[in-house]
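Proteins fold reproducibly. Take a sample protein:
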Amino acid sequence: MANIARFNTLDTALDDLMRGFFVRPVNYEPAAPAQLKVDVSENDNGYVVRAEIPGVKKEDINVAVDGNQVEISAEVKNEKEVKDGGKVLRSERYFGKLYRAFALGQDIDESATQARYVDGILELTLTKKQTAAARRITIQ
């Protein structure tokens, strides 16, 4: 008669756990596109918009204002430099276009708009367009 052995799942559980513990899997999927993070604050005169766009030259940033619509776009470039027969094993830096558009509560005076780009932060100072005050009309 043949010997019968019991199958115990706990015998292999520790081996399965240790097999994947010391080996870190490598993921070769392309990097996710970068997000254009924006902070918008309002004061009496207008709005201040701060957009986080690191690693972009100011020549590659475009801002458009139309009424109460604000559009910010940038082109992120990733130049790879490999020397002496080397090869890139993994690149996680994103390159491509970033775009963000949003509407504000009031129209913007395009002629008074100012933009600064320092240390990866784009700061827009948007002045509110003056609206005509309501007149009281007397009824005759």
